[in-house]
Structure prediction request, 180 residues.
Amino acid sequence: MALKSTIYKAELNISDMDRGYYADHSLTIARHPSETDERMMVRVVAFAIHASERLAFGKGISDTEEPDFWEKDYTDAILLWGEVGQPDDRRLLKACGRAEKVVVYSFAHASSIWWKQINSRLDRAKNLCVKNIASETSQELAKMAERTMQLQCTIQDGQIWMSAGDQSVQIDLEMFKDFG
Prediction:
């Protein structure tokens, strides 16, 4: 019998002063049995960074045809395809062909090694952006994971803070590849 996803609920308050985006999102997060708290929380941070009324979690790990999160327009065209982790170059090139923009958030100790191995194969992907979160930071985020969460994300002058109760984590993004 296949293991089922564990459902997490999060009330996410976003104050993104850089984009002028202020909203509350009630998220239902399906955590695949093979997914860690760390990866799930990086997905939540990525969601907060790109939040909009049409942004949604995809099936991610459990479906190779969907991203971890995405935004579609009213015609079902994919405006943003978001991946978390270290996807292979074929998956990213396929996503770049399907979406207006593709963004990846890597977070493991070996992220720089992964990137060095595949970056030359992704040079032609002008609609791809790859950002890295230090593994120490993602491990701190994992400590916030609970089945029911009250989270606040503040973004100002490129600085990102995620808070839950008395816990707060500053998230610094290292740019591996920017659009263009």
User: Anything to note?
Assistant: The radius of gyration is 16 Å.
